[in-house]
Every structure is written in structure tokens, then in C-alpha cells.
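Why run this: before we spend reagent on co-expression, it is cheaper to look at a predicted model of the complex and decide which construct boundaries make sense. The entries below are exactly what would go into the expression plan.
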Amino acid sequence: MQYNHKEIEENWQKFWADNQTFKATNPAQSSDQGDADKPKYYVLDMFPYPSGAGLHVGHPLGYIASDIYARYKRHKGFNVLHPQGYDSFGLPAEQYAIQTGQHPAKTTEANITTYRKQLDKIGFSFDWSREVRTSDPAYYKWTQWIFIQLFNSWYNKDTDKAEDIATLISIFKKDGNTTVNAVADAETKPFSSEAWKAFSKTEQEAILLQYRLTYLSDTEVNWCPILGTVLANDEIVNGVSERGGHPVVRKKMTQWSMRISAYAQRLLDGLEKIDWPQPLKDSQTNWIGRSQGAMVSFDIEVGTPKGSTDIKLSYKELEALKELRLNLSKAEGILWDELKNKKGAAKFRKKYTIGSFLVDYVCLAKNTIVEFSGKEDEGARTAFFAKEGFNVLRITNEEVIESVLKVVAKINNTLQFPTVVKVEKPIANSKSAAYKIDVFTTRPDTIFGVSFMTLAPEHPLVSKIVTGAQKKAVNAYIKATAKRSERERMADVKTISGVFTGAYALHPFTGEKVQIWIGDYVLANYGTGAVMAVPCGDQRDYDFAKHFGIAIPNIFEGIDISEAAHTGKEGTIIANSDFLSGLNYKKALKLAIFEMEKRGFGYGKINYRLRDAVFSRQRYWGEPFPVYYKDGMPQMIDEKHLPIVLPAVEKYLPTEAGEPPLGRATSWAWDSRGKKVVSNEKLKNKTVFPLELNTMPGWAGSSWYFNRYMDANNQGAFVSKESLEYWKEVDLYIGGSEHATGHLLYARFWQKFLFDKGIVPVDEFAKKLINQGMILGTSAFVYRATAFVKNGCDIDKSNDDVLAKIPTLFVSKNNFSSDAEFETVVKNYLSDKGYLNPNFADLVMITNTPLHADVSLVNSSDELDVEAFKKQPINQDYQKAIFFLKDGKYVVGREAEKMSKSKYNVVNPDDIVEEYGADALRLFEMFLGPLDQAKPWKTSGISGVYSFLKKLWKLYIDENGVAVSDEKATKEELKTLHKTIKKVAEDIENFSFNTSVATFMIAVNELTALKCNKKEVLAPLLVLLSPYAPHITEELWSKLGNKESISTVEFPVFEAKHLVESAKKYPISFNGKMRFTLELPLDFSKDEIEAAVLADEKTIAQLAGVAPKKVIIVPGKIVNIVH
RNA sequence: GCUGAAGUGGUGGAAUUGGUAGACACGCUGGACUUAAAAUCCAGUGGUCAGUAAUGGCCGUGCGGGUUCAAGUCCCGCCUUCAGUACCA
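The model came back. C-alpha cells follow.
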């Protein structure tokens, strides 16, 4: 009897389906508790999006691994939950609907049918009775329900969890909002309890919306007016839409958002207690982006009463200024040598702008200007400087040249006894300032190094503070940046651009005026959209300052910043920083925050990069929101009226008015009295309201599906309490790493929210997670020769005449190894065959173009079926092409690339199953390499596992049928068995599936060599193998006379006694190099071993008379002789 | 730039706490069976040198150092590849 995989696999797949072999029991579902008194184990795959292309060989990799683990756990006595379903809302179905007019539900259904067929053929032990589909109203009813829960919740920072909105309302009634410690929108205004009660209902709702965990907000999006849709960042290439190349602008739209930022810290902390891959945790940590620092408020001094005398320096002037600083006159240079680096009594700067005046030297700390006399506008200068609170000292060239020390003494004297006294501390937090700029900084210790500020061009303050003279330039700049997508802006790091606003901020400690610029290196949606620029300590600030000629004060002791900013922290001593001078980074940081808090213009703060997630999509094929609008305020539909089912539309495009596709629905209004969705015509009625037109994003349904599987058919609840209590969380989750910062972060967020609300019992949904690596396709290449006439050749024949004679030629890979060789080989071939006149050969240049060939036309020796290649429709042009073979074969080139249709390297699992069977496919996918690694697929390798299965079969079955005996197994046979038990169990626990396949092969090879046919060995072997190759093992198991499925048979127990050996082949090394082996009894002591080894004649030969210096013996391991 | 992972025969990959590098396969070469092919079975297969041969020597885990009786494995410094991510203040 031959191994017939087809028949066996079909039979057993039918058996499993008919007997519901893999149906998991819930505690409440059976009176006798069934399997539910066993310990539970929940193995989950990331459910697939059912795409039209179907599965390729890379998709099932993770499913096979999880299936092996699930089956293993069943053998180990667990009640295993191993479900599967479909993430069936998604873009491709919608796109297809737009093109064909077919309803996405229809195409999705068809795709699911295909998927299911493909999956079934591989023999997974899924419990299909719990299948979920995110696009099924019975499922998304609960997605809508969770949305309502989020809407009805706020985040209380004091209790550090989400609470019902009712508790917030009662606080508002009692105390207003000033005592509330909540995560809320930035621009919430304080109000008292009286004020709260006085607000209208709509006003109250607007305020509550600022606190809810899901809320409406104006969010900047990439809007493509021509496509009438919002585009994701990666749908934009070079500022135009990827599809169609239409212009894209940044536009504000009202959208639903999720306040995931409230959970930033808990999402970070939670990573500690889950067993997920470190790289994945790292990328989540990175994404959350916690940074510790301070918020600092800078007052703005808007346009000055001095009007036009205020700064008006153009770039040119600034550039000139820069020049001036470098080119000092002789006297200027002499004096600067004495003043610089704090040689004088205080720190001076040279060639500094104050207002629109360029002064020679200034000490900002002491408000003292030193300049050479004889300037034309001396009167105006004196007046302006006095007004600004500066003390002016005028000196002459002659004085300096005569005695610079005398001048320095004069300056010092002025510093000590200033004639003009300025207000000691700035009015930094005074109420008089009209505007303030809040910034977040991680380096409050460098605050004295601030020499300017930069706002994002979109910053709301920009329009308010810009001075008349700068308005034009600023507006032009804003317009230019608005055109660029965010991604583009971020990608373009090299260009430094920005515009001065004309306004100044006051340094909160020194009161010094610092220029306020706008620049697109500052991002509107990170931090506050503004930075305090410390050019000496931040490279971007440094570059900006250099580019625009802004001062770069150095506040680091003994650090040279003439070339680049100093960004290091450790070991840095702060200087020129008032009370922070002389302190190290850590102390300065603490003291700076302490002082800021004391003086009231700043406070310590932890900032997160994680932004609230936009939850609206202007699409059709997604979950509708259970929301209608009354007086412009969103209202939730009561949960008992859910689901709100996606309405029919005639087209899946946005409306002409730019509304989402749901704007086309004719029945999309909420009758608040009849409690149902009604025709839009009834909107005239006072009790009928418009429904939300957006739909939910793809991640909505996938953020909680793992909970639904626990009780997938529950009509009355999200999941029953008992099911949640029993299954709790996913024990093992397998899927791709591409979901690291999307699905896996959002799902953790929802789980924590549901936990806060007491809906689920644990706050992390997956204990352990494994990322499977990608399977790459092994593309096949043919090499096409293309002829060109070389440049600069003077030939009387036209190029065409020369080239026309040359046919298309494909060269076999084994004819050449480099491009140069390729050219020579082709030319020789063409000349030999008479296609190319040898006289022209020198004029012709041959280039090598590799083209993808379909991998299905290539055999295991990389030989191409040339005739089949020519027959392919895409190769119409090559009917007459010549194939330059070698040894009668056309050999293709090989390269591993991502599997994709366009690369003709996709391998369909159906074909593999057809030819070799599901068991071979399963074994082979595991045998390819470590689960988490990317590895290339080469179908030829499958013959190895296929012949393994045939060998296995032969151990049990010969030409007369079952050939298994009940005789006692030999010692040798038991040793093989137990060695295998031990290794396979260890491998499965460590998810090292590739090595256990090798172990099975070794076992079968050994048992075949031993001619073993003992049931005592062969029966347990089947159980070991059954998670990997379930069909053949079921078949052989039943052939051994068992009536029940093998799937829950107890896993064989390893007995160490079978592995005990009495002797060991010791490797004997000399100076660490293994020379020969020597078999010695294992119970030999060190001395006995040494004696035996040294007495051996091979040892004597190796030593050649030299006495060993040292003999190292590790009993049971190795002997090493040093000589 | 930053973060993470990884570099081992012609190929995919093995190798416990440092202890016989290349398990198990693919491919290749030779042989058996066959009219032939497929399938199957047997043998060989890291490089190199010596030898008719059995066999033996030397070199070998990206590169350069180091620790050790002993290094693919540990330490230091580089190089390369892949993946993720980025003006994050």
C-alpha cells in the first residue's frame, strides 16, 4: 500500500469537520463541563484580510506554527481555543467596488470562500464555529457598542483610569472644572459650578466633548480635492496623490479621534509584563516616545511703539552682519581680545543687534553697550538705548590703540556703577504681555543658551504677532509650506528655511529680547508647535542660527562650538548661565525646573510623541458610527438599537460636495422617536436627524476581536462574563511584525480601556507574542541582450540597419558571470551564427537586461522550460527570440525577493498541496528555517520532506498492509524514540520548529536502519509527529487499530533511563585541535581517563616524545592535551 | 542619523552553560534498477596540499585585535546586509 496523501488528507479533513474535533468548549456551554475543567490555552493568529489574490505560500507560515502549538497543547491536556476569522473591512474591496460597481460585501464574501477553501486544505485545527468577520453586522454591532463606551468615558488622572462621563458631570456641577485632573483637549477653559449650570445643553455637550475618550476635533489631513478624499501620508508621492498625480493640500476637517494619549504611560508600563519580542517592544516604546523635560512660557513683546525703527534686517543685512563679526578693525580686534571669554568683569558679545542698531560690544547681563564713537546716528542711538535700559559707553580708536588696559578699566568701572538701572527681574509672567509662547524642552538646563525661538508655520500665534513689515514674507512662507505634505517636510532635512516674524519674546530669566522666527523644522503637532532655540546645544537650532546669522551664545564650559552644537549631556558643565553656571547637566536640569516653578513661568513635564488617533475615514466599506447630530452636537444611539447597518449606496465615491460616500445614501437619517434609520426625506421633521457620514478605520474591528472569539455567537453581550473569566487572554499570539505600531498598539489601548470599565478581566490581551518572518519568493531571471550602436562611431549604414539584423537573444546564466563577459559571449555567438557582420561587431554594444521569468516554468535545477516561456501571453514579443543555451539547457538566475505577482515568483499553496500534500507543505514550511526569520522559498526543497513522509509510511505499512508488531522494542529503538521525545518537546516549547523536523528525519532514518516495526516505538512516534503532520498520523493511528482521533492522545513522556550510556567517544584534542576520538567508559574518573588517553598509541604519536604540559579533562565532554 | 536583528559550504540552515564546526535537507557527482525517463535505493560532497591508495597535513564560521587549555559562541574596535523609524525640541 502506497502513501496516498490526497485520499488520506481529504478523508481526515472531512472527519474533523464532521466530528467537530477542534471545537473548544466554554464552561457554561455544557452541563458536564466537557473539556472546560481542563486548563485553558488560547492560541491566536492575526486574522487575515481576505484579498482577491488568495493565499500564497508565505501566508500560512504563522498559521502552521500556531496550529502545531495548539495541537501540541491538546496532547498536553489543555482545553485549547484556536479560532480563526476575517478582518473583512478594507480598502481593496472598496476600490474594486468603485471600479466595478459591485458591492464590497459581495466580493468580500467571494474572497472569504476562496480563503476558507485554501485554509481547509492545509488541515488547520481551527474552531470554525467561532469564526468572526469584522464586516458582519452581528460583529460590528459590538464595535459600535465599544465606541459608545469610549464616548461615555473620560480619563481621570487621579485614579489613573477611564471613568464614566457621569462622574465628570457631577464634579462639574459641584466644583466646575478647575479641580478636575483629566486628560482633555489643550484649549479647555476654566469654569465654576455656577457657570456650568448656566451653560446651555449644547454648550455643556461641547465642553464634555473635550474630555471624552473619543471626541470630535479639527484635524489636519491631506486632502485631495480632485479625488475628493483624504489621503494617508504614504499615498502621497512628491506632493501629489499616488493615484492619478493630483495636487494635495493640507486641510482641516472635523474628525473623530481616540484619546489614546491618555494611556501613553500605561501602554509603556504594560510592555514590562508581556512576553513580546524585544524589537517589537522597542518600536512601541519609540512610537510612544516619552521624553522628560519642562514646559516654559515666554512672554511676547509685540511690535514696539518705536514703530519703524524696529528691526528690519533682511537676509542680506544679516549675512553682512555675519561678515562684520568676522572682520574686525584693528582697534576693535584689540579690545575684543581683552573682552572676550569673560576676561573683563562680565561677558561681552561683539557686533550685536539691538533693535535695528548694530552695536560694537554689549554686555547683556549688565545692560551695557560699548561702542566706538563717531557713528552718524549717535543721537538716535543714545536715545534708543536709554529707552531700552542700556548704559552706553563710547570710546575712540585712539584710546584703544594707546592703552587698551585703560579702556578695559573704564569699561569695568561702568559695569560696576551703571548710570541706568533696569528693572531687576523681567516681567516674564506679568499679566501685561498680550501673548505667550509655551514651549516644551527636554533641556531646561540650557535655558540661558536661548538666542531665538521658532514657531511652526501653522502655529496660531504667528498671525497675531507678526509685524507689519514681516507680514508679506511670513505669509508667503506659510503658503509655501502648506503645499508640502508633512512627510515631504520631514524627508527634506537638508534645506534650512524660515522667516523672522518681527516679534520678540522675553527670556524669562534674563529678560533679554529674543527674536521669534517661524520655520518648518518645527512641527505643529509635536509638543506645543514651538521651540526655544538653543543653538549651542541642538544641531538643528545651530544650523538655523548659522544660516540666518543669529547669535550662538556658548553656555558650556570648555566646549568648542565653532563647528557644531554640543549635544552631549554627560560630563557637561553649564557656564554663562547665572545661577546654573558651574553645575553639571543633572543638577542644572533640576535647579532650572525648580526655579521655573518657583517663579511661575514653567514646570517639569513629561511629554509623549504618541498622538491621539484619528478615527474617521471618508470611506464606505467600514463600520458606520452609531452617531447622529442634533444642533451640531454628536448624539449616541442607544445600544439597544444597534447595529446601525451600513446603508446601500449607488456609487462608492465621495459626493460632488466632497462628502464621504455615505452622503449618497438616501436612507441615512435617525428617527429619534421611532428609534430607527429612516429616509433622508424625513429630515424636515423635528425629531429626525442626520447620521454620521464617516466610517470607522480598519483598526476598529481588529482592536477587540480576540475577546469576541471567547463567545463569538453571543447575541446579547459583547462576550459573556463567564467566557471572559475562563479564557481571560490570548496565551500565544502569532503574526507579522508590520503591525507593531498599528493594530498591536490600538488593541492594547482598547483592552486597557475595557479593563478600566470592568468589561474585561485583564489589561493586556496577549501574554506572549511571536512574529513570524516573511517568506521570500525566489525570483527567476532570464537575461535579454539588447544591442545598441556605440556613441561616436562613424558608420555609413544607419543604426537601424546594423541593429535590425540582430535578433532578440536570451542568454543562459551558465554562459557568463559578468556583464563584460556577457557582451563578449553574445557578440561571439551572434558572429558565429551569422546574425552580426563581424565588421560591425566593434560598433555594437550589448547590454544585459534581466527579466523576471515565471518560477513555475523553472525546474529544481534552475532550468527554464523555454517553449512554455514563449507560450506565455506576456512573452508574445519573444516568439522568435533565440535562446542561447549551454549543454542544451537554459539556466535562469535566482534572487530572493518579496513574493508578488509582478515578480512572477508567487507560489500557491494549493499546487503544493495537490502534488505533495498538506502534511508535506506543513513540514516544509517549518523546515525552511527559524520561524521569526525571513527566508527564501524554493519549491525544489520539498522533495526532502515528501520522501521523509514516504519513509515514515514504510515503517508502518508494507505491500501487504499494516506491518507493525507487538514485540518488545530493543534498547536501541527506545533510545531513538526517547531522544526524539525529548528534543521535539523542547523544540516546540522554544518555537524551534525547524530543528524538530530535522529530529523527525533522524528518527525515521535511524528506525529504518534498525528495521524497527515495534508498536511500542511507532505508536508514540505518531503522537509526536501529529502536530506537524496531522493527516498521515491520524491515518496510521487508525490503521494501528485506534478508533478515536489522535488529536487528544497524551503526549509521550520522556524517560531519561533510555538515554543512559555506558561509554563516550571522547574527542581528544591537542592544543585545542581535535585529532581523534577515543571511546572510554563514562564512569571513568579524571585520573582513569588521563591514564587511558596518555597510554593510547595515537596520543604517543601526536606528542612525538614531547611531555604534555597540562591535560584538561572534562568528564563526559572532552580531553585537551597542552604540549 | 537613531533603534533592532543578522553575517557559517554551491543553497536553506544545525551546533546545550565556551568543549568533535557544517546536523538535517536541497543541489551536485558517481553507481544500481530501467529500452529510456520518472520514482526508488547506495556511495561521495567546506577549501587546499601530499599520496596510486588507505590516509595524513594545513586553512577555514564577515574583518582586525583580545581573553581562554579550548571561541561560530565571551570582550574591544570596524565592515556589510536586512528591518523599523525619524527635523520629537
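The CA atoms of residues 123 and 200 of chain A lie 62 Å apart. Chain A has a mean pLDDT of 85. Bring this page to Monday's planning discussion.
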